[in-house]
Amino acid sequence: MRALGGEAYAVSILAAEEDVSSTRIRELVAAGEVREAAGLLGRAYSLRGPVVAGDRRGRQIGFPTANVLPDPRVVGPGIGVYAGNVTVDGRVYGACTNVGEAPTFERHERRVEAYLLGFEGICTGRSSR
């Protein structure tokens, strides 16, 4: 690697007495066990995607959400409600994020919707992280 101007280090990682593998991490994320996945990753699990227009129901009741459209090839977290952070224009906001369907509103596709604490404005068309 040095000939190309970089360095590479091989390390052995063990966490919670099990070998780390991408398969195991994807299984944990899909099951909603993002804290455990973060332990294996050595960092917080994150999801990126453009913010798209939603149904605007949250805005009508005082809790507007950023509707993130993740890459369909990426394993997303299991259905549930998560605490986390969302970065918009370089600023980090605490967020309550729901991953799931809304059968009450006859919506059966899985969505990722984040309510950003203290954010005022419109996120649609921006990229989230």
Can you put this structure into words, describing what you see?
With 129 residues, the protein is α+β, with helices and mostly antiparallel strands. It has two domains: 45 residues, no CATH class; 83 residues, Riboflavin kinase-like (Elongation Factor Tu (Ef-tu), domain 3, Beta Barrel), CATH 2.40.30. The protein has three helices and eight strands. Helix 1 packs antiparallel against helix 2. The longest helix has 9 residues. The mean pLDDT is 79.
Q: What characteristics describe this protein?
A:
129 residues; alpha+beta; Elongation Factor Tu (Ef-tu), domain 3; 2 domains; six-stranded antiparallel beta sheet; two-stranded antiparallel ribbon; 8 strands
